[in-house]
Design a protein that fits this description.
34% of the residues lie in helices and 27% in strands. It is α+β, with helices and mostly antiparallel strands. The strands form two sheets. Strands 3, 4, 5, 7 and 8 form a five-stranded antiparallel sheet that branches. A four-stranded antiparallel sheet has the order 1-2-6-9.
């Protein structure tokens, strides 16, 4: 036991002889340098997140219901997607809550099945047939898409709030988001009009 204590005290003596600890001003300056380094990293990451978010915000979606009162069920739910960025948007799906009230979503591909992207500065309108009244369905509809930087986004249509990456992965892992094209859905405006 004394051997370890002697070795440690020898190490401490060596450090104090050859590595001076400096003054309080040196310690404060070192702390300020370290804080400035981490602040610069935080500012850089914030700018990167802001740029990514701007790319995702350029892909806008809107939803409305065919309000013709005399129309029999099923109702038409219109989803309009517009890419106002300079880059294409890939693999966009709308996830509509299940109409039977169960957990999970029904996936509706927003683009033509053979063309999985929406080019820059173009838009598309998709009609989704629903058995329930559309306004009740609007609150839970999500849009899932990949931007030009290959980042996946999951956004609520009505509120515009983005779901976190952890929430998106949890929904995918629980098979609540299923990427399958519903045969009852039809594309109304393809190719997009300028």
């Amino acid at each position: 036991m004394n051997g370890i204590a002697d070795t440690w005290s020898g190490f401490v003596a060596w450090c104090s002889k050859y590595l001076p600890l400096g003054t309080w001003a040196d310690w404060v300056a070192a702390g300020g340098t370290i804080a400035a380094f981490f602040a610069a990293i935080g500012i850089y990451r914030s700018g990167v997140r802001r740029d990514r978010r701007a790319q995702a915000d350029a892909f806008s979606t809107a939803i409305w219901v065919d309000a013709f009162a005399g129309r029999p069920i099923p109702h038409d739910l219109y989803l309009h997607a517009e890419n106002s960025s300079d880059s294409p948007i890939w693999l966009a799906y709308a996830y509509v809550p299940r109409e039977d009230g169960g957990e999970g979503y029904r996936a509706v591909q927003l683009f033509h099945p053979r063309i999985s992207m929406l080019p820059a500065r173009e838009s598309i309108t998709k009609v989704m047939l629903t058995e329930k009244n559309g306004p009740n369905m609007q609150a839970g509809i999500l849009v899932h898409f990949r931007d030009a930087r290959n980042k996946m986004w999951l956004r609520e249509i009505v509120s515009g709030r983005y779901r976190s990456e952890r929430q998106r992965r949890r929904l995918l892992r629980q098979n609540k988001l299923v990427a399958a094209v519903d045969a009852g859905d039809r594309i109304t405006a393809w190719p997009p009009t300028p």
